[in-house]
Amino acid sequence: MVTWLRGSLLLGSLAATACANIFGVGDLTAVAEQPAEAGSAGSRHAPSAGGGGKAAGSSGGSIFAVGSAGTTFTMGNGGTAAIAGTDSTSASAGAAAGAADPLEQLPSCAELPATCGSSESTSRDCCASGEVAAGSFFRSYDGLRDVGSDDPSWPASISAFRLDTYEVTVGRFRRFVDAYPFRPAAGAGKNPANSSDFGWNSAWNAELPRDAEALSVELETCGTAIRAEPSMSTWTASPDGNEALPINCLTWFEAFAFCAWDEGRLPSETEWNYAAAGGSEARVYPWASRAATDIEPNLAVYQSPIAKVGSKPLGNGLFGQADLAGNVWEWNVDWYRETYSVPCDDCAELTADVDISDRVLRGGGYYNQPPFLRAAARGNAPPKTRDPGYGVRCARGGTDNGR
Asked: Least enclosed by CB within 10 Å: which of 163, 285, 303, 348?
């Protein structure tokens, strides 16, 4: 399943039988009881590795291929990927981003029980959202030369915004399906801090399934055409024990539409990278640890079955978000370019050139090895791609006072 090459890491298509047994959704291993969630961002809702990752087929750089055909994951500027070590003393990160703020409920959490977090004793509001403080940093930079993410050539600044504490769950997405067919209004889901962001384009309506039944079928049968039965989708037509798992198998269009419906938006790659890297701390992984490259099973969901959101609280990021590494890759709003645009002040790649056909994904998935989970790692795939490793987390606002 995993092939190691000098100078690069290649994770090919997962073998059908092995995937059903190791990475299946229906027969999940129990999640061990974790300590109370550290750094949980409790408020409700009120920027290529070194910029130089190479697309598949290009020379140089490390190329990671996983999931559906046409999907590539890149990290490094001509560097190689290294398996990070483990350390049982890795500590939790994440300063709490504020106490619970009883604002009106979002559509996705109406009457939804607080089932997110590491255990029933520490369950949290699934719609919690933490403030990410304004600041500046270097995109896809962590200073480690061994993987080529030590190029500080891509500075960026962002305004304060909110980023959901958890990846969108099946339970939250079920509210969206109940309200379907939903079509965002033209301009919905834009970043108020970015004047060039025009939000939802009505031409994208054609990329959404026609009705709730069609959407449910697309989700439930995800992966069966490229991998053996059973489907590895977390979605079930009726609630069936998966409600606290992250929704997977989303296309970019469905991820955007959900966030717009839920009074939010897709984060830009710059915003997502800033949150995962702890801003100017330039963390290798979202959590703080004794050694920069520490990773172990209690910090992230990787090389294991997909798991309940927030089940690894010791791996929370600086601003309190859970699962910024592992569980599911998260769609960003940007088109994928091999190099970043400069300057960058609340920027995003919102215009596709003739040679650009992929959108950005970030964070790594449950089927990946540690290098894919790095805050500097980038993913890219065509926006129509439906893969068991793809999900979403919504952003809110984009100014100091924005919701």
From this structure: 303
